[in-house]
Amino acid sequence: MKRPIKPRQFSQQMMTVMRTKLRMPVTLLMLVSTLTGPFQGRAAVIVKTNAGANTLLAFPTVSGVATNAQNTALTASDILSFNNAITAASTYRVSNVANSILNLNGLRVLNPAGAITLQNSDNQSQTIYLGSGGIELSAATQNLTLSNAAGGTLTLATSAVQDWSVLNVRTLALSNSLVLNHQVNLNFLGGNTGGTAGVVNLTGTIGGAGNLNIAGMIGGSGGVVNISGNNSAWTGAVTVGGGATLNVDTGTTTGQSRLSDLQALTINRGIVSLSNNSANQVETVGSVVLGSGLNQLLRASSSTSTRLNANAISRTSPGAVLNVGNIGTTAGTSHLLTDNLNINNMLGTWAVAINSTSDANWVKNGPNTADGGVIALSGTDYTTQNTINNWTTPSQHILVTSTTTAGTASRTISSLKISTAGNAATVSLGSNTLTINDGQNGGGIIRVGNSTTLIGTTSVNTGFLTAGAASDGNADTLRIFNLQNTLAVNNIIQNNGSDP
Fold this sequence. Notes:
With 500 residues, the chain is mainly beta. It is elongated and about 95 Å long.
C-alpha cells in the first residue's frame, strides 16, 4: 500500500521533475507562484455590527464588544459597509481621541433597518478620509448623514478621485465640512425604474480644489443637489448633466460663495436653479459652458434680487440651447447677468425664455453691456407682420399672429415667433425659401398656443427653409421650439448654400 504524498514532498518531487525533464529554472517558477498567490495586504469589505448607538468606528472592540463583524481595525484599503446586521437607526462616532483621522477606501449603505449617521465625538474635531471607493448608496434602503456632533467638527476629505452613487428616493446629507482634494463624480441611479429622484444635501462648507461632476439618473432625468454652505475656499469646477438639478441657495451673508468665482459652471443637459427667498445676493462663476441639448438656468426664489453672474456664456456644440425661464423684461430684476453682447438685438436663437406652456421669447442683454441683465424680447423688439411680402428687413424678429398672406419671393429674417391665440395658422412662402439668420450661424422658430400650425403649403416638400448665413464656411443650425400641440413643417429643410 502506497503512503499518501504530503504537500511538501509533492512540491519537492515537482521541482525535481522540472529540473530533470523540463529544464526550467525553479527560481522562475517560484516567482510566478508568489505573484499569483493570495495578495498579502488586506483590502476588504468590513461589515458594521449592531453594536448600538455612538459606537466608535476607529476601534475593532469597544468595552468588550466588536464594532465590526471582522473584529479588525479599519484601514485605508477597507470599505465600511452597513447592512441588515444593524437593526435600528444608528449614530456612529469616529473616535474618542481628539484630532483623530479615520482612513477608509469607501462607505457603503445596503439594507440596515434604520438611517445611518456618522459624526465626530462631542467637543472634538475628527476627519474621515475617503479613497477611490467613495460613497455607495446604489442599493441602499436607508439614508446616510454625515454631521457635526455637539461641539467640535467632522471633516470628510477625499484621498483619491472617486464616485458617489445615490439611488432613487435615497438622501445623502452632508452638513459637516467637506474637503474635495480630488474630483468627485456624483451619480444618480434608478432612472429606468421610475420613482422619486435621489437627493444630495451639501449644507456644510466645501473646500479644496477638486471638481464636482453631477450626473442625472440613467433614464435621463432626476437627481437633485442642494448646495447652501459658505464655500468661498472651494476652487473646484462644477458640472451638472443628465437631467440633474443643482439648487443654489445664495444665502444671506454678503461675500460668501456657493460656487467658485473663478471656475466654469458647465451645464450639460442639466438644470441650475437659484433658490434664495430672503436676500439680495449675486452668485458669481468664472463662466457658463453649455453642452449639447436643452440646458436651463432658472430662479425658483421669490426674491427678484437673487442672481447668477455668468460672465461669458459659451457653447460646446451647435445643438446647445439655454432656457432662462420666466426671466421678465426688466434688466434690474433679471436672474442672469452676462458679458455676451447682442447681435441683431438678441443673444441668439440658442437662448430662450420659456414660461411654462403659456409663452416663450428670445432673450437679449438688456443694457447690452458687460454684466448686463438678460431679459425677454417684448413689444417693439418684435415686428408684427402677417404679410410675408413685407418681411424685407433681415435683422427683424417677426411675430406672426394669424395665417399669413402667402409670400411670392424668398425672404430673410432674424427670427420667427408664431403666436396665434389658439387659432390654427399657416405660414407659407409657396415654392420660395425662408432664411432665418440670427447672425450667429443659426436661426430659430418659436411657436406658442394650443393650436396647430403649418409652415409651408399643404403639398409636402414644396418651398425651402434654412438658417444662418450662406456659404460662409460655418455650419448652421435651425432651432425650433414648439410649446404645445402640433407644428408641421412641410418645407424642405436644406443647407444654406455650401454650408451644412
